[in-house]
Amino acid sequence: MTDFTDALGAAAALVFGLDASLTEIVMLSLRVSLSAVAIAALIGLPTGALLALYRFRGRFFLVVSMNALMGLPPVVVGLIVYLLLSRAGPFGVFGLLFTPAAMIIAQVLLVTPIIAALTRQVIEDLWIEYEEQMRSLGAGPSRAMPALLWDGRFTLITAILAGFGRASAEVGAVMIVGGNIDHVTRVMTTSIALEVSKGNLALALGLGIILLVLSAGINGAAYIIQHRTKRWHA
User: Residue 71 maps to which CATH number?
Assistant: First the structure.
């Protein structure tokens, strides 16, 4: 019990003292995850909206596949990205393996299906509700898309937050493609795993505290947005 208390005290000192190593790891984690979520949103929002508003051959297969990819194992994504970016892979010439860029790519592949699938459901529900009214005003799917995305913005923000939660807590894929290199690709999740194996519980607990606070903040923000959206539509 004494060892745990001492480690917790040391962790708190690192967090509130803004330890340089801890701050560097946290900032890299945020940079990687925020970049990945921004790219995933740019891809997932229009993709989900297109699948919601248009009917075409193969649409059902795409919708089912996208929903299935929401549960894609991170280590599989990491392996695929590793093979693509390795020297023997088709993109090895760019030298992206074991860099933050490779970690962003892996997280984009994990997060995009989540945002796209949730966006499709939100826009499809809104289209069912407003289709008759919009068509009467001469607005087809292409013209209705921006309006529907704006109308569902609060729910879509929740979807983006869900994607950020997945990205920030991911360890398998980023470990494979990033290599957990000190001062280069060491993020919170991989650092926690490494420091625990080394017995450095203070830094691991400090990073764990920040990760818990970040996770709680994301879930809290998502709940508040959902609650206010329900009140706004009531």
Answer: 1.10.3720.10
